[in-house]
Amino acid sequence: METDNNIYTVTILSSKLFFPLWFVVHTHIVLEHNGVFSRYEVLGRTPLARPEKAVEGFLYKNVLPPEAGLFIICATSATSGIGPRWKTNKSGNIVGGENSVAHKIYKFFEEGTVTSYPYIHTYNMFNGPNSNTFTKWVIDQFPESNLKLPLSAWGKKYKN
After folding, report:
1. Rounded to an integer, what distance in angstroms lies between the CA atom of residue 131 and that of residue 146?
2. Spatial CA neighbour of 137 closest among 113, 102, 103, 110
3. 0.90 exceeded by the pTM?
4. C-alpha–C-alpha distance, residues 3 and 7, integer Å
5. If 153 and its partner were Cys, which of 6, 51, 132, 137 is the partner (CB 3.0–4.6 Å)?
6. Cβ–Cβ under 8 Å, residues 61 and 40
7. What b/e string do you get for 130-147 counting C-beta neighbours within 10 Å, with b at 16 or more?
């Protein structure tokens, strides 16, 4: 029988983008183990993307709380850090113990393997590579996870 400290959770969350791109989503990945949450995402160079939160290139960790959505209006809210936010939607979730797919994804991030993302130093909001390209790339590393992205995740099909 597994104890709670051997449980790993990987969640894919999506949030609408700011006005006028409300029909597109931004995805991010939240890892949880022992009550500690880590949020990973690719962000363009905006005031939200603070350098001290950068893992490498455009990859960031814990810029926002795990389940926080993006600001509804980017220009004013992102610079002040105050303003209404979109709710997030769960696009996928897996839970498992030691040696599960969830544990393997957790290790992929926490051991730094995630920095092998091929577009870590390139970002293009509209066509990709962007946050959705990154999330799809992670999912593709673990096809057994059966995680999927929403149709409105522009950039998930980006190919160089």
Report:
1. 19
2. 113
3. no
4. 7
5. 132
6. yes
7. bbbbbbbbbbeebeebeb
**DSSP category for residue 91:** E
* Residue found by looking up tokens 């999912």 in the block: 139
The first and second tokens of residue 10, run together, are 């990987």
> What are the pLDDT tens digits along the chain (160 aa)?
345 679 999 999 998 776 556 568 889 999 999 999 999 999 886 666 677 788 999 999 998 889 887 765 555 555 555 655 667 889 999 999 999 999 999 999 999 999 999 999 999 888 889 999 999 999 999 999 999 999 989 889 998 7
Going from N- to C-terminal start, the domains of the chain cover 4-145
The owner of tokens 């190919």 is 159
Asked if residues 137 and 114 have their Cβ atoms less than 8 Å apart, the reply is no
Q: Which amino acid is at 28?
A: H
Question: Which pair of structure tokens corresponds to residue 155?
Answer: 């950039």
Paired tokens of 13: 């969350």
DSSP conformational letter for 99: T
